Backbone:
């Protein structure tokens, strides 16, 4: 178990949040992270839906291209992609991206691939006889999609994309590598700034960041599992 | 003395009473068919006898031994009770022979040669002498169900339970399974059968137990039950299987 | 492109890839053990242990590996727990991978239907025998694609290890960019290295998935 010294050290460490605006600053840092995640998620949902529909097109070449894009995005670690966007684009094309812009670009490209695959899976999971029954009662293609395919696809898609959102928020933690001033960076600044007064404060700062991420992601995970459970019961 | 004796059996799921004070007995070599509308508790009754469900009250006695609500050695009791389900329940990752051998070898620790010989004999008798190395996915529903029966028989059970074993089969495959059961009955196997095949029930049963809403409504000879059931509910039930009015 | 430079630094990349692989391998092995253990606890709903495992899984699945590493490497020394960066990486990867493996294994166990278990019981098998002869063999083959996906995911996740001063591929690339401004060369080599590491895993995982889909022993 923890010694009494350790307990004292911990309680002392947490006092750092009552000094100045330290806690507020950390929350603001978290908001930067969330902002990047939110923009990437929204863009990914939009482009991912289009990409997913593109993947179900019956053209061989389009299919192959989509597959290559998806595989590339899946195989490369997101951090490598981030480096390529942040350092590589600047060098190769002379486009200078801020850390934030590079992050949004990379997470959107990756999220589009992942979301696309979810959309494709959901679209293809609707059994063929559903199309047949739609046609049998005289619906047009558009009506079949609107009234039969879309509702079933969405039903499947909602919990899955919630889980993708969780993954994207977690991945957003990587932006600290490309110099974005977000929650970890601010945490490091706080630790640095209080090095003399509260030398052990890193334990408190990192613990708080850990649980900040946890709660943000957990909300989405929880929603996903609630929706899934409700769908199963219905 | 009866081989299997059920006395005052009560079973409920939460507040839903599925079996309300059910009592009957089965003699050695007797074939008893349980009939009744869906949800009357007949499947649950079979599951209780095989210890797949615990009971709230009452006793199940097999060969003079109380077998209900035993927890520790239930798997030993089950070796004496064979059961075949509605869904073909063969183990998909094993071939036919391994499916059959698993119980006798792992649960009963019997000699492999002996069980293999027994299995081959049974497979030949149910018309599948050349299927022992096939995997379940290579068999038709009727074939799978016959293998499932052989698998249960190779445990040398004292009583066999059949829970709607033909309900999931294509119509043309029903007969091959029923024939196997008929042969078993003629060999003197003690059997307890739940089925919706009325002709078959009439042909195979020594006795019919008609259940409704968790209780036994009547217990009669098959001839009597099918021509002139004693209870109103029995009459109503049988009407589901015939048409009295024909279109002109 | 400076090919002379590339030739010079390739050994650095190979060494770094070796280190990445070593850490990944150990981490994956531990994840496998933790995952299987937790999956069995949750599958059998072991009292007390099951909710604790559930809590661990929520914690692990909803926090980034990077933050877990920060905590292990920079925060724990304040409590007198000093871990080497190698240890931090292994612990971090296991903490993360354990929950992913648990999910794969448990859902694979749960795909084995109740009637399969009951028919095992019906032929007199004990609980342990049902697990060994009926449930596990079926669950293992179901879990292979998920397992491969986890392996790939965990190898990818190792890319953050440079943050705790592990000289892995990212670390080398960052170094070369910082020291020599050879951005293009460093990044290309980085991307290619990860491709070489991950393409086989991706191929195996795709193969396993197809095999499972088309050549299942299939119960009906």
Residues:
């Amino acid at each position: 178990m923890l010694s009494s010294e350790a307990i004292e050290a911990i309680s002392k460490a947490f006092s750092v949040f009552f000094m100045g605006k330290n806690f507020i600053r950390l929350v603001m840092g978290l908001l930067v992270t969330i902002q990047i995640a939110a923009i990437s998620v929204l863009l990914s949902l939009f482009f991912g839906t289009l990409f997913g529909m593109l993947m179900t097109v019956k053209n061989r070449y389009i299919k192959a291209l989509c597959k290559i894009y998806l595989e590339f995005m899946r195989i490369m670690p997101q951090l490598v992609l981030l480096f390529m966007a942040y350092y590589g684009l600047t060098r190769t094309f002379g486009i200078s991206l801020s850390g934030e812009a590079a992050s949004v670009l990379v997470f959107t490209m990756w999220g589009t691939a992942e979301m696309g695959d979810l959309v494709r899976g959901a679209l293809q999971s609707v059994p063929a006889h559903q199309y047949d029954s739609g046609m049998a009662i005289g619906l047009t293609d558009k009506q079949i999609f609107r009234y039969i395919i879309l509702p079933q696809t969405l039903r499947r898609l909602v919990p899955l994309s919630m889980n993708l959102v969780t993954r994207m928020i977690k991945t957003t933690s990587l932006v600290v590598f490309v110099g974005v001033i977000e929650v970890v960076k601010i945490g490091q600044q706080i630790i640095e700034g209080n090095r003399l007064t509260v030398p052990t404060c890193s334990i408190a700062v990192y613990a708080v960041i850990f649980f900040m991420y946890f709660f943000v992601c957990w909300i989405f995970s929880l929603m996903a599992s609630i929706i899934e459970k409700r769908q199963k019961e219905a | 003395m009866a081989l299997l004796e059920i006395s005052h059996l009560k079973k409920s799921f939460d507040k839903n009473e599925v079996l309300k004070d059910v009592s009957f007995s089965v003699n050695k070599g007797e074939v008893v068919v349980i009939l009744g509308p869906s949800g009357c508790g007949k499947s649950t009754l079979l599951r209780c006898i095989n210890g797949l469900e615990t009971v709230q009250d009452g006793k199940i006695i097999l060969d003079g031994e109380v077998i209900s609500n035993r927890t520790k050695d239930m798997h030993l009791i089950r070796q004496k009770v064979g059961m075949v389900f509605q869904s073909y329940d063969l183990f998909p990752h094993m071939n036919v022979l391994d499916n059959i051998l698993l119980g006798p070898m792992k649960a009963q620790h019997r000699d492999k040669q002996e069980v293999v010989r027994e299995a081959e004999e049974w497979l030949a008798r149910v018309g599948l002498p050349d299927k022992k190395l096939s995997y379940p996915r290579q068999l038709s529903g009727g074939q799978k169900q016959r293998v499932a029966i052989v698998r249960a028989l190779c445990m040398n059970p004292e009583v066999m339970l059949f829970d709607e074993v033909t309900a999931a089969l294509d119509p043309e495959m029903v007969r091959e399974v029923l024939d196997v059961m008929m042969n078993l009955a003629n060999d003197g196997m003690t059997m307890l059968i739940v089925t919706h095949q009325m002709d078959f029930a009439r042909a195979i049963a020594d006795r019919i137990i008609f259940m409704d809403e968790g209780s036994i409504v009547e217990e009669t000879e098959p001839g009597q039950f099918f021509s002139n059931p004693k209870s109103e509910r029995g009459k109503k039930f049988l009407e589901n299987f015939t048409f009295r009015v024909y279109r002109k | 492109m400076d090919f002379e430079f590339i030739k010079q630094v390739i050994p650095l990349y190979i060494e770094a890839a070796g280190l990445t692989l070593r850490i990944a391998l150990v981490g994956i092995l531990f994840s496998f053990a933790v995952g299987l253990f937790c999956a069995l606890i949750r599958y059998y709903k072991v009292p007390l242990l099951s909710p604790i495992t559930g809590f661990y899984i929520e914690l692990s699945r909803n926090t980034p590996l990077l933050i877990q590493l920060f905590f292990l490497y920079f925060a724990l020394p304040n409590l007198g727990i000093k871990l080497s960066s190698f240890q931090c990486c292994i612990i971090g990867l296991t903490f993360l991978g354990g929950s992913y493996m648990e999910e794969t294994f448990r859902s694979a166990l749960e795909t084995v239907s109740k009637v399969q278990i009951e028919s095992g019981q019906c032929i007199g098998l004990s609980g342990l025998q049902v697990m060994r002869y009926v449930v596990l063999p079926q669950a293992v083959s179901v879990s292979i694609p998920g397992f491969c996906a986890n392996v790939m995911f965990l190898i990818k996740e190792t890319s953050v290890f440079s943050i705790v001063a592990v000289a892995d591929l990212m670390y080398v690339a960052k170094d070369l960019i910082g020291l020599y401004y050879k951005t293009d060369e460093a990044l290309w080599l980085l991307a290619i290295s990860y491709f070489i590491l991950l393409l086989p895993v991706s191929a195996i995982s795709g193969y396993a998935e197809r095999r499972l889909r088309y050549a299942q022993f299939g119960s009906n």
Remarks:
- The mean pLDDT of chain B is 89.
